[in-house]
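This week, work through this protein record:
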Amino acid sequence: MRMRRKRNLDERIAACTNLIQADLSEKNMLLADKIDHRIDFAAVFGNDHPVHLEIGCGKGGFIMEMARRHPELNFVAIEMISNVLVEPCEKSLAEGLSNIVYLNTRAECLKSYIPPRSVEKIYLNFSTPLPKKGYEKQRLTHPRFLSIYRELLKEGGVVSQKTDDRFFFAYSLEQFNGENWGLKHISTDLHADNDPENIVTEHEKRFSDQGLPIFYLEAFIR
């Protein structure tokens, strides 16, 4: 079912422009990989703190809680659907979270906005598994995306992934191994590990309440 467009969406997005570093129409997204709007993080955040990136932030629960817990870090959250992105933008603005900005674009376009070797950690939280074979290249752990992450991450940088989908988790492990990434902190039942640092996302709570295990891994450049 198609998501209903939020009332006054354009005006609400415009009110958050100081938090949105890329606000592109769907048409322009198709051209975004041909432009260079790389962000000067020191200018945007006013400091040189490490930068973490979440791809597909949804309603923003995870990335906003990270920003609250870690004022010593800067956060960038990407979400391609403006209708979804407007909510975390408004909440971040209301809270005065100064260590978080948003990108309203596609993951394929990240190199147009994120400078190379500028990110310490990338979060993939409950990305769409896209199990049909014809959609494989759109999975966020497909090699074409892993090559993008490798360019954006600093030496020793980390990608962390959480998913409830066993197939997608197995696929991701295979791709990281095949592309010569190191792997650590692999878990097939994250909640059983009782990690006090784990931030439960909206999707995570729903899946966990259904009794589904949460799969987790960290992949690092080597």
